[in-house]
Amino acid sequence: MSETSVDEMNFETAMAELEKVLGQLERGDVALDESIALYERGAELKARCEAKLKEAEEKVAAITLDADGNPVGAKPVEGL
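RESULT FIELD:
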């Protein structure tokens, strides 16, 4: 497991570590205490990935379209 704070990770880094955590948990070859720690880290990583995806969706949703559905610009999304 990485020592990097989950809050400092970008989407790609968090997703890569989450995949490693899931792999370890699926193999089932770790002690119970380590499994619990991995599960907790995985939950934090999952939440980070979901938050970063939500940010991206809000930015994409802010693209303005004309009457034909063609992109014509973007408007700022509040809170980003």
